Amino acid sequence: MTTQTTTQTTFRRSIYRRAVLDAFRKLDPRVQVRNPVMFVVGIGSVLTTVLWLPSTALRKDDLFLVETGDIIPSDGEIVEGIASVNESAVTGESTPVVREAGGDRSAVTGGTRMGEPLLRPTGQGAAPSSPCACRCW
Description:
By secondary structure, this protein is α+β, with helices and mostly antiparallel strands. The protein is built from 4 helices and 9 strands, in the order αααβββαββββββ. The termini are far apart.
């Protein structure tokens, strides 16, 4: 019985070692060029890393403005405005949800995308709301 345990451990170790080495080899741009999908994903991740505002720059109670199409950089709550938020990346829900300031549905999740501003009724009729202001948690 001891022989079988040693053989299985050695077998698993060799599989894991090969998988880790192959993963690092596939990060080489010369290998990624051969697979166009992985090449585009690699370029996209580099551009995102270089051009993105780091969420570490945000602190608790910081206010930030989120406009249509922006990705919400941090968990927080809407303090002004009303809009639809596409949370499909986090929840898998296919339809956007409505988030507005002051209600029980004001919380937003970092990494979700701000949708179109919704119409807010006014005394003069319906007018589009301004971009949403959010506060970090």
